[in-house]
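Morning. Coffee machine broken again, so started the prediction first thing and wrote up yesterday's gels while waiting. Chain of 160 residues, entered below exactly as on the submission form.
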Amino acid sequence: MGGWYSWSKEFDPPNNMTGYIPGHSFGQYLSGLARDYAATGDQATKAKIHRLVRGFAETITPKFYDGYPLPCYTFEKTNCGLIDAHQFAHDPDALPSLARATDAVMPYLPAHALTRPEMAAKPTRTSPSPGTRAIPCPRTSFLHGCAPAISVTSIFEALS
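Came back before lunch.
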């Protein structure tokens, strides 16, 4: 759950985090647990989901994204995990956490979904490791103006 590891001779924490994407797998893990709970009804799994969401909520800060190479990708995974925690495990903290996580990431998202050439030209403090593809943000593009008819508020209303 620490992050996406890809060997890089340039990896030299904290100076160069090339090859390490901390936090990207949390949302995927949370989503998987929520879906498992929906299928099995296992109360221990539900309790774990609720603990994870509460723990995550305590760590939400915009500082996480400062110099972070893939804010869209990681936020999209977190977004899906929190929505699934709400939808399938009925976690009362999931949507408030999603709102705070959205506020934290917004300053770090591009004004529109980036094309691959735009992503490649974007300066970052850390560079993707060789062979790592830059991922534009099409599925969460509504969060930053690509589809203004959809808003975070409308998503919350639809899920409530």
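The chain has one domain: 3-159. Going to sketch it on the whiteboard this afternoon.
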